[in-house]
Design goal:
The chain is about 70% helix and about 0% strand. It is mainly α. Helix 2 packs parallel to helix 4, helix 3 packs antiparallel against helix 4 and helix 4 crosses helix 6. It is globular and about 45 Å long.
């Protein structure tokens, strides 16, 4: 399987897949609903992080952690709502984690980082 992923990490054409859902508001309920639709396997991760974030916000007496939580999950939704982009990201993450070829792993990390940066840019962050 890794060989197939490594082969796919070669020059990927620009993808133009459309969104599977509309971009949600950057509000907890809207993001949770979006995650439930595009990446339901991540709901427990989101819930756990929400609880940790709320505790940190109380401890720091700041809403900063809440803003960061909402942005992080807005980015996750932005990526996951485009199926081809999501596949590219997950493929790059897997190659980066599993490849014995250091150059290939570096290229995979760069590709994953660019996908994530593009999502932040799309959200104006």
């Amino acid at each position: 399987m890794l060989k197939l992923l490594e082969a796919q990490m070669g020059a990927q054409p620009a993808h133009h897949d459309g969104p599977s859902i509309p971009r949600p508001d950057r509000a907890p309920d809207a993001l949770r609903e979006a995650i439930a639709r595009v990446a339901p396997h991540r709901l427990s991760e989101m819930e756990k992080e929400k609880n940790e974030t709320l505790a940190l916000a109380v401890q720091e007496n700041s809403i900063g952690p809440i803003h960061m939580f909402l942005l992080r999950w807005a980015v996750a939704v932005e990526i996951e709502r485009f199926p081809e982009t999501s596949k590219r990201l997950h493929r790059a993450e897997q190659v980066a984690a599993e490849s014995a070829d250091a150059d290939l792993a570096r290229r995979a990390v760069r590709e994953a980082a660019e996908i994530i940066r593009a999502a932040y840019r799309e959200l104006g962050a």
